[in-house]
Amino acid sequence: MNARQSAGSTATAGSTATARTTYREALREGLREALRGDPRVFLMGEDVGRYGGCFGVSLGLLEEFGPDRIRDTPLSESAFVGAGIGAALGGLRPVVEIMTVNFSLLALDQIMNNAATLLHMSGGQLNVPIVIRMTTGAGRQLAAQHSHSLEGWYAHIPGIRVLTPATVDDARHMLAAALDDPDPVVLFEHGSLYNEEGDLDATIDSVGLDSAAVRRPGTDVSVVTYGGSLPKAMAAAEALAEDGISAEVVDLRSLRPLDDATVLESVARTHRAVIVDEGWRSGSLSAEIAARIMERSFYELDAPVQRLCSQEVPIPYARQLEEAALPQPASIVAAVRQAVA
Q1: Tens digit of pLDDT for each residue in 58-115?
Q2: Interhelix angle for 260-270 vs 285-297, to 10°?
Q3: Active site includes 242?
Q4: N or C: which end of the chain has fewer CB within 10 A?
Q5: What is the structure's pLDDT at 302?
Q6: What is the pLDDT of residue 16?
Q7: Is 305's pLDDT higher than 80?
Q8: What is the per-residue pLDDT for 189?
Q9: What are the backbone dihedrals phi and psi of residue 243, each rounded to the nearest 5 degrees, phi first?
């Protein structure tokens, strides 16, 4: 496995220890380690303290670290994101939790016009080392207002880093790397992943933030995805393998900066690409990735690039309609079959 396939991980030689954990628990342990390791780090957001976080990620941290470092905030995203930016400018390392991505729109002015621009507008004098966490994605019957996948919008903004951890190892270690970044980092946690279990590799002590990862090698087609769509892509690859189709699955991990080199290397091996993106198709991240493949690897392609996105409707509440609106393993299989036909 090469450096890109291992996603920039640092491991201790000689040990292969693993521990079974959930994505939620891995995130919590990453927060706990950050709070223990640096007194400048604190967590703030709605219900992150006594309630333990809307999705239970910060459960128990208030009792362990106290109210000065685990801060419940008023229901005003613009206010507490702005306070986090001010704290970062003052030398602290705030981790700001926004419940779901739709609420982040209430703080978009703070994120885009302040956090993302202050370094540039100050002539390099003002870094804003803030980490903003939020839940994204559909598939949990939370209806249209709480089922957005807007991470592609944020990937459009210069001045911020956009991360989408999809595995327990990335959930565990991306926060530490993000806090080491002197500039703003927006970290998207797909809500469908919180209960997912995986083997946490105890030999890994850090992960890189600039590299995509080949989660499954293949020879016939590159399936490019990220976040909550990764397990679906892996399931589709398993089903395709039973029919003799070898799908390589690429986990983007970072949407800004985008590691298109790993994507292009994969396409050079397989000569076909299917991009799975839970965002809406029009103006989507999948369109950007497809354009980069066409611009730089056109002559490597044996078939047009395929894109599989959510249907262009508000995400329905009814389970069967919601499932029909989102990319699913079966629809990924169908898109791959079309690409390799």
Answers
A1: 999 999 999 999 999 999 999 999 999 999 999 999 999 999 999 999 999 999 999 9
A2: 60
A3: no
A4: C
A5: 98
A6: 56
A7: yes
A8: 98
A9: -100, 10
Q: Which of 332, 327, 252 is nearest to 292 (CA)?
A: 252
CA distance 175 to 124: 24
Stretch 305-310: mean pLDDT: 98
Residues 41/12, Cβ–Cβ less than 8 Å:
no
Helices (H) and strands (E) in the chain, counts: 13, 16
Cα gap 192→197, rounded to integer Å? 11
CA distances for 66 relative to 62, 83, 127, 133, 338, angstroms = 5, 19, 27, 20, 55
Enter the DSSP assignment of 159: T
From the candidates 46, 77, 248, 322, give the one annotated as an active-site residue: 77
Place of tokens 């994505």: 23
Residue pair 80/45 in contact (Cβ under 8 Å)? The answer is: yes
* Whole-number Å distance between alpha carbons of 215 and 193: 16
What are phi and psi for residue 327, nearest 5 degrees? Answer: -60, 135
Length of the chain: 341
* % of the chain surpassing 90 pLDDT: 92
φ and ψ at residue 107, rounded to 5 degrees: -115, 15
146 is catalytic: yes
Closest CA to 237 of 229, 248, 250, 227: 248
Q: 4 vs 171, 175, 181, 261, CA distance in Å? A: 18, 19, 20, 10
**Residue among 249, 204, 247, 223 nearest 18 (CA):** 204
How far CA 232 is from CA of 151, 237, 278, in Å, comes to: 18, 9, 11
- Pair type for strands 41-45 and 70-72: parallel
What global pTM score does this model have?
Answer: 0.93
